[in-house]
Amino acid sequence: MKPVRIILFAPGSKERVMTKALESGADAVLLDLEDSVPLASKAEARLLVAKVIDSVAAAGTGRDGPAIFVRTNAAATGLLEDDLAAIVRPGLEAIFVPKVESVPEVQNTASTLERLEAAQGIKAGTVEMVLMIESALGVYRCFDMINASPRVASTCIGGAQDGDLQTDLGCSWSVEGTEQFYARSKVLLDTRAAGKAWPLDGVYGNLNDEAGLIQDSTLSARLGYVGRTVIHPKQIAPVRQAYAVPAAQVDYYRKVVSEFEAVEKAGTAAITVDGKLVDYAMYQRARRVLELASLDR
Predict the structure, then answer these.
(1) Measuring CA to CA, which residue among 121, 279, 284, 277 is closest to residue 197?
(2) What does the alpha-carbon distance between residue 249 and residue 236 come to, in Å, rounded to a whole number?
(3) Which is nearest to 28 in space by CA: 11, 58, 49, 5?
(4) How far apart are CA 233 and CA 252, in angstroms?
(5) Radius of gyration (Cα) for the chain, nearest Å?
(6) What is the pTM of this model?
(7) Are 107 and 149 in contact (CB under 8 A)?
(8) Per-residue pLDDT reduced to its tens digit, 241-268
């Protein structure tokens, strides 16, 4: 899965909204078959989502557009198999699997993807998985679930106000993030410990609170999340701004890389840059920050 900052949700039952989302400027579009689709409309939504994926694939692999992801229904609903049968096709890059709570869920979903890829003539492993962590048990088992399949590319924690995780934890919610700070930190730690470089945060649900969105996204970025899902195009710009690496940091870390690489060739592995010690650890940090900054545009 290519690194992304902003992932815009689009309800799978609304073809026009999905089509407009492709032109929103988001890094990825998350076509939704879960909570935004009424139960009676699930079958129709699968067909519409498949149609959108086909249109993206028909545009060619070199198209300059967003990545295409789909949020399926959870395994416990009994709808997941039908979702996958409809949407696994050329053009789909990853699925977001909601409310994941066990290693067998991950492994069974991965096996289904393998079978469907073969049936569609798609290279094995093409469709990756992002685990949506939305319960206390999901937070607790996060590391093991990430390692349950090489298809797992990342995680996305669902900490929205009045959402599943808040409900399951029984905690309050505030824009300061105190109540879910441990859960948010643990999912990020587990994701990084499992070797996944692009942990994602979930939605901020109040569309009329841009200040809160920026505050929450800034905290998310400080913790180490690289981006998040959004529910409306008007959230894209403020979220991108909040996650962007400040220009001063980019300049400093470019200087670190340049000067350290120059002295390393001369046999030195420790210098000072702007009065700060730089050795291999700081050099690696600089390279990581510059890689992250490459997502900003």
Answers:
(1) 284
(2) 22
(3) 5
(4) 32
(5) 20
(6) 0.94
(7) yes
(8) 999 999 999 999 999 999 999 999 999 9
Domains and CATH numbers, the chain: 6-243 (3.20.20.60), 247-293 (no CATH)
Give the integer Cα–Cα distance in Å for 12 and 2. Answer: 22
* 149-186 pLDDT tens trace: 999 999 999 999 999 999 999 999 999 999 999 999 99
> Per DSSP, what are the bridge partners of residue 138?
none
Task: Specify the pLDDT at position 59.
Answer: 82
Distance between CA 43 and CA 292 in Å, rounded? Answer: 39
3-state secondary structure the chain: CCCCCEEEEEECCCHHHHHHHCCCCCCEEEEECCCCCCHHHHHHHHHHHHHHHHHHHHCCCCCCCCEEEEECCCHHHCCHHHHHHHHCCCCCCEEEECCCCCHHHHHHHHHHHHHHHHHHCCCCCCCEEEEEECCHHHHHCHHHHHCCCCCEEEEEECCCCCCHHHHHHCCCCCCCCCCCHHHHHHHHHHHHHCCCCCCEECCCCCCCCHHHHHHHHHHHHHHCCCEEEECCHHHHHHHHHHHCCCHHHHHHHHHHHHHHHHHHHCCCCCEEECCEEECHHHHHHHHHHHHHHCCCC
Q: What is the pLDDT of residues 13-56, one digit of tens each?
A: 999 999 999 999 999 999 999 999 999 999 999 999 999 999 99
Residues 6 or more apart from 35 whose CB is under 8 A from it?
A: 98
Provide the pLDDT for residue 62: 46
